[in-house]
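sry for the spam today, last one i promise. struct tokens for design, 174 residues
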């Protein structure tokens, strides 16, 4: 509270405790990330391009809120209430990615015989660890490089090719 213009009673007017503040921040960050990733999650447009847009949105949220996300993620194993909030946050991402993988498998977009749940959990865990390391403290890494790195990994894992191979095969079909 010393770093703000607010008094301690003002804090408690809006939040019950520090946990409530952390949970509120995480919820607001998640809503922003979900909105930015929505096009791929709901299956709008060409999948590889939509995935690129989704990952760019998640990364932009991490650039903006990375230190807060990192603080919550690092405190979670030491605090049951934060661990539950972090677990629910990651669980909702796992559910969304798993659902998209299943739909794309049914549509034949993903032809690899993947376990949708395990793949979603692995990709999201990789993203969380990578994004916290790259954007959880200042100075932050280059978001463009981070985006291209994650996009390459996701496209390879889900679609079996690199984004460059997919673009090249589209150009040769034209």
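last one done:
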């Amino acid at each position: 509270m010393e770093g703000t213009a607010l008094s301690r009673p003002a804090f408690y007017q809006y939040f019950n405790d520090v946990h409530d503040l952390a949970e509120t921040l995480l919820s607001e960050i998640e809503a922003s990330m979900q909105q930015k990733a929505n096009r791929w999650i709901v299956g709008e447009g060409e999948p590889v391009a939509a995935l690129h847009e989704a990952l760019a949105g998640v990364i932009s949220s991490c650039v903006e809120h990375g230190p807060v996300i990192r603080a919550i993620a690092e405190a979670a194993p030491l605090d049951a209430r934060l661990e539950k909030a972090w677990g629910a946050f990651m669980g909702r991402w796992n559910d969304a990615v798993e659902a998209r993988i299943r739909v794309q498998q049914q549509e034949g977009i993903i032809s690899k015989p993947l376990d949708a749940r395990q793949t979603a959990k692995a990709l999201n865990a990789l993203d969380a660890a990578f994004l916290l390391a790259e954007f959880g403290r200042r100075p932050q890494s280059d978001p463009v490089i981070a985006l291209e790195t994650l996009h390459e990994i996701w496209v390879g894992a889900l679609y079996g090719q690199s984004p460059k191979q997919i673009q090249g095969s589209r150009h040769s079909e034209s």
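Helices lie at 8-14, 18-42, 47-75, 80-106, 116-135, 143-159, 163-173. ok im logging off now
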